[in-house]
Amino acid sequence: MIFGDNTRSLHLMGVGGAGMSGLAHLLKGLGYEVSGCDVARTNYVSNLEKLGIKVLSGHCASHIDIFKPDLLIYSSAIAWNNIELDYARKAGVCVARRGDILSALFNQLKGIGVAGAHGKTTTSSMIATVLDAAGLDPTVAIGGEVSDIGGNARLGQGAYMVSELDESDGSFELFACHIPVITNIDWDHVNFYPTFQSVQDAFIRFLSNRKSDGKIVICGEDIGCQAVSKLFSPFCVTYGWGKRWDWGAIDVKHRPGGGVLFTAVKEGNEMGSVKLRVSGEHNVLNALAACAVGDLLNIDFGTIQKALYNFKGTKRRLQCLGASNDIYIYDDYGHHPREIRATLDAMRNIFPSRRLIVIFQPHRYTRTKAMYRKFAEALMNADIVYILPVYPADEKLEECISSDLITNCLINDYAHEYCLTVAEEEVVSKVVEDLLPGDVLLTLGAGDVDVFGSQILNVIISNFNKQETASM
Predict the structure, then answer these.
(1) Is pLDDT at 141 greater than 80 in this prediction?
(2) What is the assigned CATH class of domain 9-101?
(3) Does the reported pTM lie above 0.85?
(4) Residue range 107-310, CATH number
């Protein structure tokens, strides 16, 4: 148990999100009475209800009277003055952040925590898959739906816990890892970190909090990681391209149609080939991190190879939604310029000769303001770009900050031939009008842009079926 004997009923605010829903899943499995609420009804909510967790819509003080929780847990998206949270405090209910509770569970186990601005979800998913294949039965908490475990969380019976750690609000500093994994260190979440140095300082504190016997698995290629790793070099296991790192990749071959093959190298010695079903050079690096962790846990390389080959990927990470009339529809969560570059490069490797059309939804006004030029530069690798209005998340409207910053930069500074800002209610009809057989469409962003990919797919399937019927 992670709480005292008097704590039995738990209420989670913002339970429809990836992180909070995973925590609710684990707490339910541990035997607690769990309830929740959220303004949005997501797939995560439906999955929780199947577990018998009651979830109410919106945020309201009456929820506290209905559920009478011993403890209220809230996500970082919940404002401190939220009416429900404020009522709970005044009623004497104990309140805690998601990170407080997840770290309490994590720190009781041998925690493998994956941190970094990009690649956390896939890397932690690969590591969990490797440990599972080795029979270690880890507890898992990941910020995305993982095909291999059938969701975003699972309560295991083993000694290890694999968790994606969120640096966006600083809560990752609460986790004392047995093995910390850092995929990269980049300036993101500009609403919380004013400078790149403040991000690096946070990662230094995070690594300083690891358990005394903890090795650090860290990407040697990343500039931000390089600066931090110098402070912990005796404890670091590095990974990257070639043979100069503890774990490296050589002979990388991208497969048209999807997937990548490479030879894994440990301390200069070739270990064997690794075949991935997922695509992109970024996933080669993610797989190397999983190799390094597996090796630290004395998992034989053959088991690691097999696990990585069987890894099916995670939802909203280069996910193929479907195809019709020789038009492929993909979706990806990328919402930072670096992620967008990696995703578009991967799409070009999968479909080297096809026209690539992107629907991009910027995420947060603060990020758009700080990075609009870098967004424009990253999107240059697409043939056609449709840019939706900014998805605000929990930020207030800033009228002077809009998607036009990116669009105008693409057109005026980078001379992109086909880029326009389009309203959400118009994007489906506009894109369907422009799509041709042989095209690839990618929806891109951390908001709700994925729904448009599904809608477009349904329209082109319907149109194709009508054409087939008419030709009979």
Answers:
(1) yes
(2) alpha beta
(3) no
(4) 3.40.1190.10
